[in-house]
Write a structure and sequence with these properties.
Elements (H helix, E strand, L loop, with lengths): L1 H7 L2 H21 L2 H8 L4 H29 L4 H11 L1 H15 L1 H17 L1 H15 L4 H25 L1 H21 L3 E3 L10 E3 L10 H7 L3 H30 L5 H33 L1 H21 L3 H8 L2 H19 L5 H30 L2 H22 L5 H6 L1
Antiparallel strand pairs: 1-2
Amino acid sequence: MNSFTNVLRNKNYWYSSGYLFTFYAAWSLWWSFYAIWLKSKIGLSGEDLGIVYSVNSAVAMFFMIFYGVIQDKLQIGKAVIIFQSVVMMLIGPFLIYVYEPLLQSNFMLGVCIGAPVLSAGFISGSALIDSFIERISRLFNFEFGPARFWGSFGYAAATFIAGIAFGIDPHINFWLASGVAVLFFIINITFKPTKSSSRSTEAATPETTVVDSRPTIPTLREIVSLLALPKFWMFVFFVIGTYSFYTIYDQQLFPNFYTAFFKTPEIGYQVYGYLNSFQVFLEATCMIIAPFFIYKMGPKTSLLVAALIMICRISLSATVDNIYLISFIKLFHAIEVPLFILAVFKYFVANFDARLSATLYLVGFNISSNIGVIILSTPVGKLFDFTNYSTTFYILAGVVLVVSIISIFTLSNGDKLQKESE
């Protein structure tokens, strides 16, 4: 109770929660209906959607590396986040007056201009904000999880509003995103991470800025050494063959598939927003519960179980045609994502040098999954154009199933996590 009270009195915790709430709310207001907007409002084909997502993912990889290296050097400096927040505030005018007209008149130019803006502000920005707040939490004595909850809450609340606004006019969503981004900017320029110079949290001593002096950037030799490990490449193969395919299904295909079940698009947008909000609330709850199961099952088994849930969701979407059942199936996402993401970190700890966890997460997971999306988005889009949702979903589920079966034998069990928990 005492530690909980100390957290509530910790202004760094509340500023950090404000960062996460406003960032994820601003992102949700336009991103949660991005695929629907591109297809129903802009009129893009399945192949066009694949190109958009491929280019976005390719550019996002550059910003992930750039943000990660620079922010590690700045530690808790905010220069990069100030740049990101400016891009965020411009998202509404950019989408309305630049991105939309270009996609309609000169598609490839619009894609190439849009990808750096969307990546710098949001797609890669999410990893930047999460890593920045995680570092703040370590320096100022509060858990990252309770702060990250506010990010999920912000995303869920904004998605609820986004579904209503999108049915009226998508431009409302874009202006709202810029408006919330202004709040994010205000929090950023007013937040000055400070900590009492005394060890006692109760002492009335002057507050001083804290800088993390611990090195966080792995050496080039350490990074390259990962590339020589077969189990690293087996993990990359698993990520591309499961999470990349699932990402394409969930972001590129499912939103338009789901809203097509309703009498009018406006009703579909609203219901999809409500369902997304409920899903994110469940996801936040599962983030708390998932570690218990991961410790019980082990990281490898947890990853394979998460892949099984992916297979079930994709294949069942192709099988059932009842909107209530499909809505229920979508909620599988709230179980799969926390289980997969948290198991990834545990897998790194159990199988690799923990000092390289940031590099492993960047290269082994984020970059690998993005490469998969880049390579696969356009072929999957073409497949949908020539077939239908059911056929495409069955093929995606089949690929994830084959990769999962292979990974039973190729993923490493590891023993570090078991030793730590004993």
